[in-house]
Amino acid sequence: MTFSTSVEMKGREAWITLEGELDAAVAGEFRQAIEEIAPQKPEKLVLFTSKLQFMASAGLRVLVFAKQQMGREVSIYVVGASGPVLNTLLLSGFDQSVYLQESYP
Asked: What's the rounded Cα separation, in Å, for the pair 28 and 73?
């Protein structure tokens, strides 16, 4: 399964759609998306993950990187996480650092 990201600014919100399997081999692509969007100083980072089938610890490291890059004042929303992706967030405790939502307006 391939991995892809789609990045878009919606006003003061950065939207990133993640699809496929996020493992160490492709985590750099996700990190690049964060680096691309960070200078625009979004107020919210919204990650759409309903089409993400798997997230390894390398994906978690990029989420930590995103939190550091964006700063404490930027809220991170993880939308549509299920199955192995949701389990990774819950088992790592990272669900305490982001907002988990089934949908986003």
From this structure: 24
Contact between 69 and 63 (Cβ < 8 Å):
no
* pLDDT 10s digits, 55-67: 999 999 999 999 9
Cα–Cα distances (Å) from 97 to 2, 3, 15, 26, 94, in that order, read 27, 24, 18, 23, 5
Question: What's the CA angle centered on 97, arms 55 and 68, to 5 degrees?
Answer: 85
Please check the confidence at residue 1 and state whether its pLDDT lies above 80: no
Phi and psi torsions of 43, nearest 5°: -85, -30
Domains parsed from the chain with CATH numbers:
4-101 (3.30.750.24)
Q: Which residue has the tokens 């939190």?
A: 67
pLDDT tens readout for residues 68-77: 999 889 999 9
- From 61, 70, 68, 53, select the one nearest 14 (Cα to Cα): 70
Q: pTM (2 decimals)?
A: 0.94
